[in-house]
User: What shape does this take?
Amino acid sequence: MLNLLFPKVCAGCKGQLLMGESVLCLECIHSLPMASFHKTESDMLKDKFYGRFLVKNATALIYFQKRGLTQELLHNLKYRGKKEISSFFGKWLGAELAENHHYKAIEMVIPVPLHQQKLKKRGFNQVEGFGKEIALALNVPYRDDILIKISKTGSQVFKTRILRFEAEEVFSIQNLEAIKNKHVLLVDDIITTGATLEKCALQLLKGKNVCVSIATIAVA
Ligand SMILES: [Zn+2]
Assistant: This one.
């Protein structure tokens, strides 16, 4: 009855979802530009971090295209509160990673954190659903109390806006003991330059004998 009054629509094309479809219609699913580095032996994504920090494995599910379906989806997730998009991709990737020998050994999933202020404004971390579903599929804990995003320092006030944006991102780590000797999967919504993931990974690698892999919804 509810479905008749408020038909469920596709988060990509806004078309009505058919029975058995949820979040995305089949047509949208089939038109997604898949990246799926975990399915190939390609180190293309991993190589993005070469010389920056040691990453064990790196994968992204889809390619981000400007003005395309992927942009619409990430925009709906981040700015229109469509949290289910995050979980949808998490379930998808989680099921595939659980069958993948490179990722089976993951022992914990850790999200790139949002700043407390932004979390309040947005109401949720856009990567949470994605990370939680992957953790569920791999049967490991999801921990969002390890990495934290802290405030910018006052010294950046005079830099240009662009510079300040990059410099603003400062991460810190707590509960280091929890990741000791662990292979952790760091998750985010999108990889662009990789600067954010690098900063987070460098924090995680402060832990004793920690190994870091990366998984994101999209790669630009
Ligand atoms: Zn659709």
In short: Residues 10, 12-13, 15, 24-25, 27-28 surround zinc ion (CB under 6 Å).
